[in-house]
Amino acid sequence: MNVVYLAQDPTLADFGKDPWWLVLIKVAFAFVFAVLATLLGVWFERRVVGRMAVRPGPNQVGPFGLLQTLADGLKMAFKEDILPKAADKVVYFFAPVISVVCAVTALSVVPFGPMVSIFGHRTPLQVTDVSVAVLVLLACSSLAVYGIVLGGWASGSTYPLLGGLRSSAQMISYEVAMGLSIVAVFMTAGTMSTSGIVAKQAHGTQLSIGGLDLPAPGWYAILLLPSFVIFFIATVGETNRAPFDLPEAESELVAGFMTEYSSLKFALFMLSEYVAMVTMSAVTTTLFLGGWRAPWPITLWEGANSGWWPMLWFFGKVIALVFVFVWLRGTLPRLRYDQFMRFGWKVLLPINLVWILVLSGLRSIEDWDTESKVIAVGIPAGVLLILTLVWPSRKPQPKPSVQEQVDSRPHGSFPLPPMDLQVPPSPRTMRVVAEREPANIAAGSDSREV
């Protein structure tokens, strides 16, 4: 596959040349994007889940309820900040800060667009990029677990401690599957630079299979479909989102690792969750969905991938992935902890290892070019993986009759209502009837009318 680097595609040589004020503008933009995405993300989730549940959602504070999240943030800021007596004050304070900083830092190596002109300076729409930018993303994701674990431990309470322990096991387990999925990306792209990975997903490439030149999809979500499916599942588990929100688990752990947090510290944990969701959506867009490049058929327009337009395509892809996060929360129930861990270690990890081995073997075949081999095997493997995950694992059993259900219950487990659904009268009713019965008989009336 021949990749043509256009003039607007940034390379590593384009970074490190910006004046200090331009760097500050980029850093401020990334921070403001994270905060605004959180505010709008909470509103977006409430509206979408409300739509799914056939209820309006927030619609009173501001137009379309847009200021509801801001009002909730102000309310949390003025709430009383309660510090448990048994808490470690220093760690208790810094734990939510660690979670927010790690989530925001990952945005520093995410490309928002191509080379543009800002106040006369040609610069890439990205804070910075390094030759191992993907490892920076993994490091930020790995460090985020410290905020949750330390927050649960520093509270000095049982439920937060259990939530922190569950978080550490969950996030570390799914980081393994996430890392292996990324391995497939830079095996194919030949680089760990995020701007380089986006450039390698350029459209309009040609594949040569058996002497035939065929157009090839550029997105790694298609070329590396198994890696994309596993990576997105791992991001849902990594960000503690439903159906993998076991660290919080209100029905089991009150509120998990942040049970003892209130006021602004609780708001920071909430902020970190939504920033992590937006950040992982941006990372997924960068690694698998072509980054800021326009999807087909917008690419038929020659100016689609130049200027400031690519930011629109990038934000559109991020919003689409955030919608999938919300969609999963509104439709799937929470998994049991043993099911969740079994799924990560016994399903995703073996499949990912086998796929990496297959991908390595394909690269050693000399008859086809790399992209042709990946398409020939990767797309069928990805479809098979999706079918395996969604296909029912058991044959549905016939539903037993009501009498069979009653007979199968252990004797004395709990009282059952009569099968004719006629509930016997209460003792108070029986006592009233017994008291009135002599008077009714004396009056010549039927006692059953009472």
Automatic annotation (TrEMBL):
GO biological process: aerobic respiration
HAMAP family documented for this protein: NDH1_NuoH (MF_01350)
Protein name (record): NADH-quinone oxidoreductase subunit H
This protein's GO CC annotations: plasma membrane
Pfam short name (any one): NADHdh
GO molecular function, one term: quinone binding
Organism, as annotated: Micromonospora krabiensis
Ranges that cross the membrane: 20-44, 90-112, 132-155, 176-198, 218-237, 266-288, 308-328, 340-362, 374-391
Listed InterPro entries: NADH_UbQ_OxRdtase_su1/FPO, NADH_UbQ_OxRdtase_su1_CS
Region named Disordered: 398-429
Catalytic reactions on record: a quinone + NADH + 5 H(+)(in) = a quinol + NAD(+) + 4 H(+)(out)
NCBIfam families given in the database record: PRK06076.1-2 (NF004741), PRK06076.1-4 (NF004743)
EC number: 7.1.1.-
Membrane association type: Multi-pass membrane protein
